Amino acid sequence: MSAIQLNVIKPSVNNMTARVFLRAAKLDFSENDVYGQTRSPEYLARAPSHLTPMIETADLPRGALWESCAIMQYLCNKHGLDDFYPREPEARAMIDSAMFYLIGTFYPYLARATYPALNFPLYAGEVGCSDADAATKEIARKAAVAALAEPLDVFRAFYIGDKPFIGGAKPSIADIRLAATLEFLAAIDYDLPDWAKTYMASIERTLGAAYAEPAADVRGYIAYVKSQRQ
Ligand SMILES: N[C@@H](CCC(=O)N[C@@H](CS)C(=O)NCC(=O)O)C(=O)O
């Protein structure tokens, strides 16, 4: 058995993040597709959050770890993967800031904007999963689409700056997280700025099959939901 078990739902960009990273880092792992199983008593006993991606390894105090960014940080720390997660405190702080900003600010807008088109459930408490009427939900979704541009440009102007990637010359774990996240915008035909298209292509070119294989699952799912709309 591999040292690390990676539990995933393949159409998800949260999962794509961990799937790309474990491949790019060339870690010894096995991937388990747990689609439809995350609320089972057996999964909940191991991960009461019912979330994916989730890794399991005997080294962890509770045997399991979820949250895509925490998974990447832990595995970089554990395996000394400094190229993906620099050790120098200031460089590391920028990677951490970019990932917290993505999870805390950018992703909530992106989820509100894209999840209805992806047939994904929204987070509890969102207008989209309340009993508000369809018109009100669509107003909230459009507001989220409009809100995406500002934090997206912060990645360009502040985190990436004049370097190819947030991590500098090579993609860091924050770059993997951002590029995977942007994949979902194809579900709403979002007009991605040219810099973001170039950035995503650079990451895919640099990481090769480690990126392309998990991306194909996300892209395939988006193509499927779009085909169902016609
Ligand atoms: N912030 C988390 C989000 C994880 C998440 O929302 N996972 C969803 C798939 S996109 C999930 O596993 N849902 C299954 C469930 O809740 O039962 C991360 O980055 O890993």
Automatic annotation (TrEMBL):
Residues annotated as domain GST C-terminal: 88-230
All residue ranges annotated as the GST N-terminal domain in the record:
2-83
Looking up InterPro entries in the UniProt record yields: Glutathione-S-Trfase_C-like (IPR010987), Glutathione-S-Trfase_C_sf (IPR036282), Glutathione_S-Trfase (IPR040079), Glutathione_S-Trfase_N (IPR004045), Thioredoxin-like_sf (IPR036249)
Cite the entry's keywords alphabetically: Plasmid
Q: Extract the coiled-coil ranges from the record.
A: none
Q: Which domain of life is it from?
A: Bacteria
The UniProt entry, under Pfam families, shows: GST_C_2 (PF13410), GST_N_2 (PF13409)
- Record note on quaternary structure: Homodimer.
Q: What is this protein called?
A: Glutathione S-transferase family protein
- Source species: Ensifer adhaerens (Sinorhizobium morelense)
